[in-house]
Recover the amino acids of this structure.
């Protein structure tokens, strides 16, 4: 007969932009998230777990192009229902806020109000993957839906500081900086760049033109403020007005404000004082006569007082007007947690670790479903960033210790070896029997090495007959074999022969070394 | 101007076949999985977390129809790479075994061998949803890849028993039943229905015809064996031979074996004895002269000895030939864990809770990627079933207690209320401040009720001036208001006034009641 033509074998590959997590990578992240969840829970937040799949309609945001609704998300169309038209478009969630919005609308009559919830889990982004950028990653959010009071913001800010400490970041190694979008709105209002005009439907052609110009200018001002850390006060002044020549000699166009307009923006930016009281005083001056600006400063003052009452000192949380995080998206208080310790970047230069979490107040959460504005505020912790910080600090990623390995000298006595492993496990000691081909004992020790085993248990027929067992300290053994001469090594001080009854006690003692 | 036409609001709905999990539903499942993971870890298994997304090529199994590769899975095609042909088909994983196969092949040079891994997480099925059947659900697996020895099977069987107890199922409320596919193969071989002929490429037309007939008969015999619990020994005998008239009077065709052929099958089915030794002896008789059958019985004997050595008595694990679980898929030992306590079904009749976990040996895991057979064995616990069992036993699903709620009598004193909540939390007591509109105090108590709060803290201006606070026992209060007269209720014995300094101590004492 003719030989069957074999089909090509499938490739064993993780899809592009996705990755696998092994052993300690999984358990360390889990341990960190468990500690954060405990803090969220202590603050009265309830767990919520939605499925990974939502209707594209509920996710919303990603529908700029009706023909291809999956820009940015992984989406697919359900099969058509027989006789019922085309199937729904479904998609993987791209964050945990969109599902919260759907849940808050769907169960609005059943959920307590305000509704405090936390959520932790994977989200998916259909983006071009890059180094360290994956298309599935974890988010870890806490939000309060239905609370208009800034007490909700203050609570979440304090909770974030507690969560970072619970995760393992020491006090002094992080700082939560708090700002308020309304303060900047007030500053812009004071210099005649009214936000409202751009958001509301224009009443006349002149309105429309003014609105578009204002929106353009506002965006340009936001982008400029964001450069404060880089170009400093003088640089921002130039960029806000006539423009600036950068280090490379390139001309950068200015926003076109006159000097009188630029001044309040700069006063706002540089208003951080030695303490919150001074900062608030400076901000009050910067917003001038703007009502929304004054409201923003009042809110910050309330938040500062509440944080104080909750025992959050300036070593943990400060009012800082330079926080511009998502100012365009948020409607009130915003905040960002930064890790303040230094690390070396890829070029060996020292730099601060930087942002690991942030959030703020937003009000359009449920509105698109129900038409009713529902105030909401929340925080999102960057799981991978925070885990990287813990590794940087030596608080995670240490070579995890493997199990005690019971080696197999005699294939017919597997039951005896399994009894030993069971005895160790009954004493709470992680243990396993070598399950590969036992013929080559060297392979068993190589396996134990790959498993990062601290101890190997060895018992041949001779030892069994005498009621003893060999216990080999692999950590000490590795040290000796790296440093000692062959003679020293041969004396095997890392291996002891003990009576079988002493197995648990001996292993326990060795593990405690 | 013409009114803008408002777009239709999106529906706030979970996609069909998916569901949301709230509060205790999330934390109870998590607690159960944590306890099981601890058992897996103690046995030397390592966590593995693959992403939810795999290439359809790697998932494999679901490609019967080239035009529509998503039968059974949620699949979509990646965008075409510019100039690089069509994009890959991606899909959500439908179980945790297919990703393990991919990982075992992809990292075969790096992973320890044997590789013990556990995995817990959601999987997705593109199936018609039904009552209690969702399109996303959890799986919880442990597998050993690369171990040919039945010691690996024995270990996993013992680990399953330990995991069930760790989850909360008491000894005596479950039983793990173990069988071996080779034993049945031996019985079939002994009566002339050779498995090999159906699986190998036929060498002649006669072979092909015999093979097809054997496969048909084998499948029919497997289906018949599965009815043993329902129709008993006599019923199976009829079904294996000439056929049977069922209770409704319908004629059911027989498999067509003659009496001599049916006898060994029946002997196999009824070979469970008073103890494993008797069962094994009966099985040895049932397989007659079949080599593969004898091998199967030998393996079961080894497993029985190992389980014994690991302290697994007949109250936890037994050899039971009636386990037919996926016999067609598995290649060696198979096992199933059943919960033996009775529950009432939807019609109020008593029945055993039934199967919550199972597994066995399979050898085609890595072969489709690499061409090399890699022996593997594993267990999968039905997460939802086991959780339902714990609820049935009152070990989960109890109304979870909410946080202590600090009510707001005076809107301007939010900072004070937050300080109280912070003080309680610092003492490890779950607490929150009421964040809704505080105007109507009744709403605050309704909220506390919805949150299942055990205690409400109340402090008006008067109490604040006197340095006292009211602590209201809501659980006792609910009891009293349900039973007591208005006069009794008004005396409010469930509410005490205490000095502010005594807050933590009083709340702690009340919670301990």
């Amino acid at each position: 007969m003719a030989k069957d033509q074999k089909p090509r074998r499938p490739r064993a590959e993780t899809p592009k932009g996705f990755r696998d997590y092994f052993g300690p990578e999984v358990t360390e992240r889990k341990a960190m998230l468990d500690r954060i969840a405990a803090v969220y829970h202590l603050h009265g937040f309830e767990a919520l777990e939605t499925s990974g799949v939502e209707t594209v309609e509920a996710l919303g945001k990603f529908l700029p192009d009706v023909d291809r609704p999956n820009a940015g998300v992984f989406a697919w169309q359900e099969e058509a229902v027989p006789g019922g038209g085309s199937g729904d478009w479904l998609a993987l969630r791209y964050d945990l806020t969109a599902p919260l919005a759907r849940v808050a609308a769907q169960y609005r009559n059943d959920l307590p109000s305000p509704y405090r919830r936390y959520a932790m889990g994977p989200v998916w982004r259909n983006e071009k993957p890059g180094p360290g950028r994956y298309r599935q990653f974890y988010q870890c959010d806490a939000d309060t839906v239905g609370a208009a009071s800034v007490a909700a913001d203050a609570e979440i800010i304090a909770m974030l500081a507690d969560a970072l400490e619970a995760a393992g970041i020491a006090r002094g190694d992080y700082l939560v900086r708090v700002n308020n979008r309304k303060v900047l709105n007030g500053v812009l209002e004071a210099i005649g760049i009214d936000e409202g005009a751009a958001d509301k439907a224009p009443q006349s052609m002149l309105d429309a033109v003014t609105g578009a110009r204002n929106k353009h200018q506002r965006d340009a001002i936001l982008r400029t403020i964001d450069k404060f850390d880089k170009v400093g006060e003088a640089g921002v002044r130039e960029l806000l007005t006539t423009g600036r020549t950068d280090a490379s000699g390139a001309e950068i166009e200015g926003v076109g404000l006159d000097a009188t307009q630029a001044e309040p923006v700069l006063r706002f930016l540089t208003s951080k004082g030695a303490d919150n009281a001074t900062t608030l005083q400076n901000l009050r001056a910067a917003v001038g006569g703007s009502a929304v600006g004054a409201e923003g400063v009042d809110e910050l003052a309330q938040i500062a007082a509440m944080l104080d009452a909750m025992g959050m000192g300036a070593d943990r949380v400060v009012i800082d007007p330079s926080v511009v995080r998502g100012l365009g998206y948020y409607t009130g208080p915003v905040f960002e947690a930064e890790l303040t310790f230094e690390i070396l970047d890829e070029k060996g230069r020292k730099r601060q670790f930087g942002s690991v979490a942030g959030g703020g107040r937003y009000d359009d959460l449920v509105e698109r479903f129900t038409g009713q504005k529902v105030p909401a505020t929340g925080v999102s912790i960057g799981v991978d960033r925070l885990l990287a910080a813990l590794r940087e600090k030596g608080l995670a990623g240490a070579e995890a210790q493997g199990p005690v390995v019971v080696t197999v000298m005699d294939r017919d006595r597997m039951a005896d070896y399994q009894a030993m492993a069971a005895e160790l496990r009954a004493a709470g000691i992680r243990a396993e029997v070598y399950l590969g081909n036992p013929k080559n004992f060297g392979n068993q020790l190589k396996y134990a090495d790959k498993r990062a085993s601290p101890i190997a248990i060895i018992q041949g027929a001779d030892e069994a007959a005498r009621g003893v067992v060999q216990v080999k300290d692999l950590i000490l053994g590795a040290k000796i074999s790296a440093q000692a001469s062959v003679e020293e090594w041969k004396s095997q001080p890392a291996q002891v022969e003990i009576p079988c009854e002493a197995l648990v006690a001996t292993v326990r003692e060795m593990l405690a070394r």
Q: What stands out?
A: Chain A touches chain B through 104 residues (CB under 8 Å). The first strand of chain A starts at residue 21 and ends at 22. Residues 63-67 of chain A have pLDDT under 50 and may be disordered.
